[in-house]
Amino acid sequence: MILCFDIGGTTIKGAVARSATDIDTLPRWPTPARDFSAFLAVIAEALKSLSGTVDGIAISIAGVVDPDTRAATVANIPCIDGRDLTAEIEKAFGIPTLVANDADCLAMAEAGIGAGQGHRIVLGAVLGTGVGGGIVVDGKLINTDGFAGEWGHGPAIAAEAGTPPVKIPAFACGCGQKGCVDTIGGARGLERLHRLIHKVDLDSETIIADWQAGEPKAARTIDVYVDLVASPLALTINITGATIVPVGGGLSNAEPLLAALDEAVRARTLRRFHRPLVVRGQCRIEPGLIGAAILGLKEFAGG
């Protein structure tokens, strides 16, 4: 039995996994963002509610883990930022623990029971508030620290995009670099592009709805957005050899947007795909928990 958590900035979601398809969710807890003792108390409360042996604890976080120091970088949860979370939880409870990036958990969920089933190389992509990703090969993550498959970071956006071209500045990214896909590829990035092109502030849902209704300004923004995002995603597919890209995050709910992105990506990859490549993820409910469960089962329960 694996105790799983998906740690968000406002909410901690929990579950108990006995297999990849036998996952029972637990009550949610508010995230004690600045109190590590309270954070450990959540885990203690979850453990107390269970009967039976817990083989391991598997945690999905919206951050990365330094492979050398094992320190987690989780900007929106100060109480765990900079800590070796694995070691501290193991010390507190004496239970083997695994901490993984949430995009890696999404990729693992999709490879295990979602759209990536039957594919050797799965690139899980997140198009949410920002951009993320993870790579699964032969059912195994490249790593769990959140770096491999992270196509959202690195100076990758073009200097101009769309037809006719629009000049795109190298926006500063929260990772400390400039020109990252993350600055234009997520929901906030789509809103940023609309503001840049039209000097109008609209939320991403309105932009997409207006585009689907045929509104010219929104159509122009989507044209630029797809042009910018398709190239770095196609490059990532070329490098990894991925044959399917399940997408999660808020923007994945806009299936016409994914279809437009898929068409543009398939026109730019070295290998020609005559079927959808960039697809909506099938794990719509709690992919972080599902991915953490699969990782924990493999690591601690021989699953």
Outline the structure in words:
By secondary structure, this protein is α/β, with parallel strands linked by helices. The chain is 36% helix and 21% strand. It folds into 2 domains: 2-104 and 285-300, ATPase, nucleotide binding domain (Nucleotidyltransferase, domain 5, 2-Layer Sandwich); 117-280, ATPase, nucleotide binding domain (Nucleotidyltransferase, domain 5, 2-Layer Sandwich), CATH 3.30.420. It has 9 helices and 15 strands. The strands form 4 sheets. Strands 1, 2, 3, 4, 5 and 8 form a 6-stranded mixed β-sheet that branches. Strands 11-10-9-14-15 form a 5-stranded mixed β-sheet. Helix 3 (102-113) packs across helix 9 (287-300). The mean pLDDT is 92.
List the helices and strands and how they pair.
Elements: E1 2-7, E2 11-19, E3 22-25, E4 29-30, H1 36-48, E5 56-61, E6 64-65, E7 72-73, H2 85-93, E8 97-101, H3 102-113, E9 121-127, E10 131-137, E11 140-141, E12 160-161, E13 166-167, H4 182-185, H5 187-198, H6 204-212, H7 216-240, E14 245-248, H8 255-266, E15 278-280, H9 287-300
